[in-house]
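User: Please predict the structure of the protein below. I'd like the answer in structure-token form so I can feed it into my own downstream comparison script.

Assistant: Understood. Taking the following sequence of 52 residues as input:
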Amino acid sequence: MHLDGARIFNALAETKESTQQTGELFDSISICLSKGLGTPAGSVLVGNKRVY
């Protein structure tokens, strides 16, 4: 299962959950750095398996 985590850090700050608690629920998470963290651009894809 995949989570589009565009504003995941905002949600975690509000709910007081840890990144590990949320990460355990999903196979992959995309994190948009420009939306949630205010960087100029960029996204990261994290998951529990290495993809080549």
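That's the full token string. The beta strands are 2-4, 28-32, 43-47.
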